[in-house]
Design brief:
The structure holds two protein chains of two kinds.
Chain A lengths: L3 E4 L2 E4 L4 E8 L5 E7 L6 E7 L2 E5 L6 E7 L2 E7 L7 E8 L10 E3 L3 E5 L1
Parallel strand pairs in A: 2-11
Antiparallel strand pairs in A: 1-3, 3-8, 4-5, 4-9, 5-6, 7-8, 9-10, 9-11
Chain B lengths: L3 E4 L2 E5 L4 E7 L6 E6 L6 E6 L5 E4 L2 E5 L5 E6 L8 E8 L4 E3 L3 E6 L1
Parallel strand pairs in B: 2-11
Antiparallel strand pairs in B: 1-3, 3-8, 4-5, 4-9, 6-7, 7-8, 9-10, 9-11
Chain lengths: ~120, ~110
C-alpha cells in the first residue's frame, strides 16, 4: 500500500466556517507534509511533521492549524479563511525524517478548497 | 531555502519531438528529485539524483545532475501525449521538500 488518502476531495466553505482536511497513510512513514498549490503554480510547503511533532512552519497564517494525532493521520484545521486561500491542498509523507533527503515523498490527490 | 528556477515555464510540442527542461539553483543541492504532476493528481516521483555528473535513464526520460550539483536537466525523447503534465524539480532537505517553479508540458497528438 503506497497510498496517501485525502478527504474530502472537494470543499466549499464560507469565510466564517470551520472545517478540517484529513490525510491518512499506512506506510509507516514518520514525516508528513502539508502543501498549498495555487492554479498553474508549484506546490508550496506549509508544514512538516517529524515523528508526530511539528518541525517546520513556513510562516503560515494562524487561520491554518495543523494537527498530527498519530503517526498515520494528519489534519489541517481551517478557520476564518479568505477567498485567496482557495487552492489545492496536498498532503505527503516520506519514510524517515532522518534520511528524508534520499527517500521518496508520496502525495495524496489533494483537497480542492474554495472559499466563498 | 534555495531558489529553484525551471525553464522553460511552458512548453507545447508535437508528438514525437524531443525536449529538455532545466532546473537551476543559486546554491549547491545536497540531492535533487524530479516529479511529474498530472491534472487533478499529486506529484509522483520520477527520479532522485545525488552525485554530481550523475545520469539516470527512465525509458524515454534522461536525467542529468550537473557536475557542480547546482543544476539538473530532464530530456524526453520522442514525446508522447501521456507525457503531458507539470514537471517539478525539488530540493530535498533533512526533512523537507521544496519545489522549483515548474515546467508545464503539453504534447499535442
Amino acid at each position: 500500500d503506497t497510498e496517501v488518502t485525502q478527504t474530502p476531495k472537494h470543499l466549499v466553505m464560507g469565510m466564517t466556517n470551520k472545517k478540517s482536511l484529513k490525510c491518512e497513510q499506512h506506510m509507516g512513514h514518520r514525516a508528513m507534509y502539508w502543501y498549498k498549490q495555487k492554479a498553474k503554480k508549484p506546490p508550496e510547503l506549509m508544514f512538516v511533521y517529524s515523528y508526530e511533532k511539528l518541525s517546520i512552519n513556513e510562516s503560515v497564517p494562524s487561520r491554518f492549524s495543523p494537527e498530527c494525532p498519530n503517526s498515520s493521520l494528519l489534519n489541517l484545521h481551517l478557520h476564518a479563511l479568505q477567498p485567496e486561500d482557495s487552492a489545492l491542498y496536498l498532503c505527503a509523507s516520506s519514510q524517515d525524517p532522518r534520511t528524508g533527503w534520499r527517500t521518496e515523498a508520496f502525495f495524496g490527490q489533494g483537497t480542492r478548497l474554495t472559499v466563498v | 531555502t534555495q531558489l529553484l528556477e525551471q525553464s522553460p515555464q511552458f512548453l507545447s510540442i508535437q508528438e514525437g519531438e524531443n525536449l529538455t527542461v532545466y532546473c537551476n539553483s543559486s546554491s549547491v543541492f545536497s540531492s535533487l528529485q524530479w516529479y511529474r504532476q498530472e491534472p487533478g493528481e499529486g506529484p509522483v516521483l520520477l527520479v532522485t539524483v545525488v552525485t554530481g555528473g550523475e545520469v539516470k535513464k527512465l525509458k524515454r526520460l534522461t536525467f542529468q545532475f550537473g557536475d557542480a550539483r547546482k543544476d539538473s536537466s530532464l530530456h524526453i525523447t520522442a514525446a508522447q501525449p501521456g507525457d503531458t503534465g507539470l514537471y517539478l524539480c525539488a530540493q530535498t532537505g533533512a526533512n523537507n521538500l521544496f519545489f522549483g517553479t515548474g515546467t508545464r508540458l503539453t504534447v499535442i497528438p
